[in-house]
């Protein structure tokens, strides 16, 4: 019973870890705005804006913010992957323990139990 409870806990932990990895890896981005469609003979006049140092500084700041968010997401993913790896290791160990327990159960025939009791009785005398 104890092994089965441990297996249930391990499976629950692996499901939680997998779900948290899925949730934390979702990255939000700015919505795309559809470009204006030009149809037929219409022409669009484009005025080119001069890029100032302020524009460059603002853009650099935005890039740094995005890079910080990406780095944070990467750390979260790495942490969650480690949790998943640990959970998989525990599941493997629990599976091995269950297999060993099943082997012991198969070997625990009435004849083997009686033989073991006789061995113990013989050693006590």
TrEMBL record:
Q: Where is this region: Disordered?
A: 28-48
Any keyword Coiled coil? yes
- Keywords, ordered alphabetically: Coiled coil
Report the coiled-coil segments.
Answer: 70-104
Q: What is this protein called?
A: Uncharacterized protein
Natural source organism:
Streptococcus pyogenes
